[in-house]
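Posting here for the record, re: zinc ion.
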Amino acid sequence: MGKSLGIHLTGRIATGVIEQQKPCSLLFHFPEDRDDADSLLDMPLDGLIDLVCEQALRATQDCGPIDAVGLALPGIVRDGVVEDSPNLAQLKGARMAEKIHRALSDAGIAAPVIVLNDADAIAAGVAAKHDRLDAFIRLWALGYGIGFGRYPYAPGIWEGGHCVVTLDSTENYCGCGGRGHLEGIMGHRAMRLRFLDMEPEEIFAHAKTGDARCREFERLWHRGLAAATANSIHMEGPGRFYYTGFNVRFLDMKLLQHYLQQMVTMSPLQNYTLEIVPMSDDLAVSGAAIAATQAAR
Ligand SMILES: [Zn+2]
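Prediction output follows.
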């Protein structure tokens, strides 16, 4: 197996090529400006596909034949079809694998294309970076929404960010509209809705200086993540969990472990490990390319 192209499509596009399942070292971005993180959210589907192809060509020029292409995006993806994507609504129902494959073939890259949820791609990228491509890992991505990823890929929905962590019916800040969801507590967007007068950075800063409302929320935030992790342990067993995403900066690992110990008490299930991975753009790109390599075998 030779080279694979990874593409991460969110409010921006990141692309890169990997060889032999090694993490990607050279990334290309559109737009280049990191702060311009949501310029693609309103772009029509056809324009988005053209842009993805342009970026694919940019990343693959001068690097010889490409054997497989992996496209990671936020949403529920099955058999190359995006069944739903609340953050990139124009993708809903799109046969993305087919469309990208056709567009790339026309442009001279005739490799098989797989499409996967970006949290799964990040999990594969983390597995590669930590030299654990032979292990089972789970990952929480704490960003605008809350992503749950697993490696190796297994068919399923795995919308862990929307798991129910409270029966309080006033908990209704999740972008999907469902009540009691983890994302409704932890998601960046949800935190801004809850605290209309404060940014998430300020909430956690005020919690440190003793503000009662902010401290209570900080505890709820950690208990929510502990509950979701405990649920995953009770369903699929203990093992290795990674935490990443740009809001992993708010995670207090001691507090998370404290709550998790209260929630997972059966001794055969206590053999779990928790680790923070700083978010970097290469994780999803590498992971998408690795998943494509593995699928093409
Ligand atoms: Zn939800």
